[in-house]
Amino acid sequence: MSQTVSAEGGASYASAGVDIEAGDRAVELMKEWVKKTRRPEVLGGLGGFAGLFDASALKRYERPLLASATDGVGTKVDIARQMGVYDTIGHDLVAMVMDDIVVCGAEPLFMTDYICVGKVHPERVAAIVKGIAEGCVLAGCALVGGETAEHPGLLGPDDFDVAGAGTGVVEYDRLLGADRIRTGDAVIAMGSSGLHSNGYSLVRHVVFDRAGMSLDQQVEELGRTLGEELLEPTKIYSLDCLALTRTTDVHAFSHITGGGLAANLARVIPDDLHATVDRSTWAPGAIFDLVGKAGQVERLELEKTLNMGVGMMAIVPADSVDAALTTLEDRGVEAWVAGEITERGAHATGAELVGDYAK
């Protein structure tokens, strides 16, 4: 069996491609960003074996339920790698994790991350963590720790991937979901910032392989380069959703991620009810039209893969619509009534899109 040998003749971790000193340097660079996410319940600092969160803060709850989620950002990381931009992908990671947690009405508490690289470039790793920390601030949670792993031979020197896990808390009798939804409820859509972090395998295949476009190509209908559009961070709705729970009688949320709008909305609709969403209430952004035309992708396939301009949906009683829209408007969130809840017919599914998109 062959063995990697250092200049002195003996094998070492460094000669196998793992640079511990670079890892230590990355930790030092990221500390200032992690500190910005600190909540009063966090104990200790970065560098321990585990992140600590003071659970006595949950004593104010009668029956606290912990909500947990984990996710990554998929092949969007390859766009970041090609563009050499590393400080936005963390926003995507936080959004994918914490916006899943807030769907049940839970307040995001803390998050940990996992960054896997082919070679540790301290400044790059710190930039990724900077983005994660900024995202945690936007979600109202603490970044209590993480792991940076160097995998030479498995990943190329510039390759990387990110994943994260988060925890939130919700009072038992404030838990949101299908059992709260009633006939006549309104479906409120919240606008996305673009593609968010789903469907990039399709998007990359279409714009690069089929259309032959490049990341630095200026696209008139987008008003910027293709790369800038594809790297637009995922919008984080956590605090906006929590604001809605304080000002209105929200029955449920749906985070529109992989699988598209109808499939994700159906996940929170009870078996005897049906959600109808009217496409004519909004016009998807230019990137969705570009992907559809460049790849000759049928509308149903687009809708099964991409968010089509809607990143989060709230289901509220009809008499709470005005208050909900006002709350979201005050917070700078584009929102509109997109549909309603009705009884489910014999051939109906949990949710469907009807009509044609506005121009």
From TrEMBL:
One of its GO terms (molecular function) is phosphoribosylformylglycinamidine cyclo-ligase activity. Residues 183-346 form the PurM-like C-terminal domain. This is Phosphoribosylformylglycinamidine cyclo-ligase. Residues 62-170 form the PurM-like N-terminal domain. Its EC number is 6.3.3.1. It holds the Pfam family AIRS. GO terms for cellular component: cytosol. It is found in: Cytoplasm. Belongs to the AIR synthase family. Keywords: ATP-binding, Cytoplasm, Ligase, Nucleotide-binding, Purine biosynthesis. GO terms for biological process: 'de novo' IMP biosynthetic process; adenine biosynthetic process. Its main location: cytoplasm. InterPro entries: PurM-like_C_dom (IPR010918), PurM-like_C_sf (IPR036676), PurM-like_N (IPR016188), PurM-like_N_sf (IPR036921), PurM_cligase (IPR004733). The lineage of its organism: Bacteria, Bacillati, Actinomycetota, Actinomycetes, Kitasatosporales. Pathway: Purine metabolism; IMP biosynthesis via de novo pathway; 5-amino-1-(5-phospho-D-ribosyl)imidazole from N(2)-formyl-N(1)-(5-phospho-D-ribosyl)glycinamide: step 2/2. It catalyses: 2-formamido-N(1)-(5-O-phospho-beta-D-ribosyl)acetamidine + ATP = 5-amino-1-(5-phospho-beta-D-ribosyl)imidazole + ADP + phosphate + H(+).
